[in-house]
Amino acid sequence: MSKLDKKKPVPTGKRRTIAARIREALSSSGKKQGRTLEKDTLALSVRLGQGEEGKELAGWTSPSYSQSKAIRLDPEVVLANRCIAYLPYTPETEAYRVLRTRIMHIIKEKGKEGNAIMVTSSLPGEGKTLTAINLSFIFARDFQRTVLLVDGDLRRQNIHKYLGCAHNKGLSDYLANGCPVSDLIVWPGIEKMALICGGRPVKESAELLGSPRMKELLSELKGRYTDRYIIFDAPPILTGADVQTFAPLIDHILVVVRAGKTSMDDIARALHFLPQEKILGFVLNRCQNAFNNYYKSYYA
Predict the structure, then answer these.
(1) What single DSSP character describes residue 68?
(2) How far apart are the first and last CA of the chain?
């Protein structure tokens, strides 16, 4: 559903050049109520709700994150690393809105319970981390929901790199070192969104993800706020035992596949290791469709 590439975080020296290209592309892709998309990209505020008139009158309420460590995201770093749903109005952002709506409808229609979603893929390089990040941005825009994004890829944490935020404590520090939960959760300045990311890589990741301490943490996070979705960026399914260990603790699973790369054999092998009743569906990454042209004509 997303057309974004799965790419490594962009080196610091190249960020401004790439961000400038993104601004040029977005600026030429259309206008909304006389404002170019370039202005959204250049906004220095990281509050996604700022400038969107009438939200409070429509019932928008934002929780207080006074007990969480506050950090600031650099918009140019975020956009250079393809976290494009940071912007409110782009074709890619709209695609993630569709994905969010489908997820919520499937959960409701099938009578599924639970608010913990695992985002994974068959193999590395298919776009799972960017999907988890962009989907979290979109859930943070929903009037009735909040979101907690957790980096559960304990061997290869990447969320903090894509967002350009340095944080020394992550999920592995809680599981292996007894770090308090309050030290893990950070607020990136985005209304209705919190993060657990970073931390030291660990080799015994499967054991930690299936540990009693992980079960306790997940129970606490799921029960603390009933309106909150918890989105886990999990390791690829076929690279180890982590997902097989973690899946029984999760409520729902999204599998990211990359158009033109992920083979049907890899998908079949990956699905074999997942509890079928928990699979919400697939996210087709880097697909080509008419969505972009529709967006341009609709907002022109």
Answers:
(1) S
(2) 23
Q: What SS3 string covers 30-61?
A: CEECCEEHHHHHHCCCCCCCCCCCCCCCCCCC
User: Look-up: residue for tokens 């304990």?
Assistant: 154
Mean pLDDT computed over 111-127: 92
The residues facing 256 across adjacent strands are 121, 283
pLDDT in tens, 34-46: 344 444 444 433 3
The 10 Å Cβ neighbour count of residue 59 is 8
Can you give the pTM of this predicted structure? 0.80
Of 222 and 17, which is predicted with more confidence? 222
Assign 294 a pLDDT band (cuts: 50, 70, 90). Answer: very low
- Nearest C-alpha neighbor of 170 from the set 121, 205, 139, 124: 205
Domains along the sequence of the chain with CATH? 12-299 (3.40.50.300)
* DSSP 8-state secondary structure symbol assigned to residue 86: G
